[in-house]
Fold this sequence. Notes:
Elements: E1 2-3, E2 5-10, E3 19-23, H1 37-40, E4 48-49, H2 50-58, E5 66-70, H3 80-89, E6 93-98, H4 103-111, E7 117-121, H5 129-133, H6 140-152, E8 157-163, H7 170-179, E9 186-190, H8 207-218, E10 225-227
Helix pairs in contact: 4-6, 7-8
Amino acid sequence: MLIHGLQKMTLLDFPEHIACTVFLGGCDFRCPYCHNFELVDGSAPPLMNDEKFFKFLEKRHGLLDGVAITGGEPLLRTDIADFIKKIRTMGFKVKLDTNGYHPERLQELCQEGLLDYVAMDIKNSIEKYGLTAGVESIDTGRILKSISIIMTSDIPYEFRTTVVHELHSDEDFIAIGEMIKGASHYYLQQYTERDTVPDKKLTAPSGEEMERYLGIVKEFVPNAMLRGL
Length: 229
């Protein structure tokens, strides 16, 4: 397992836990607003292998409770289950970030009891999923299956959407609300313009837009919140 980035401590990435965040390279999406695109296109060289990471983790007993695994898309890795098992054997909890495009692997991790928290990105309404994910052809059935797996598991979870002015509308959030109706947690995150994103023409929605979208999704997910505003 090659690791492309490591944040040694975070109070934000794993709710209610002090964690480190591991960044894995590779993704099957090409979101035009992605902040970690160097992990997606392979331009970021590996930082370390898993052996070096486990040596780091061994020294963090008593300092960290868990490990947040993100990317890129971690479920692209065929050895992700073994990686997580090793982390849990060392006494740390695991949070997984995913784009939801690998429901079979997600199901396996859930059934084996390897996850303590799951965060899944909801890119957009089904009709605009391919556009927002940056791929011409997409099997949205995989997305819906992952949503179902997460919502019917007993694992704490959240759904989240990065909101981009040019990509999202009121109608999209009605559709998203219907898609995840009754979810325990849903967060709307305002897109932040950065030099590293692929499409430099994209802009952030206004605070007024964010509040309006929040009002829409609260009809479906009463516990929905804005994050980062």
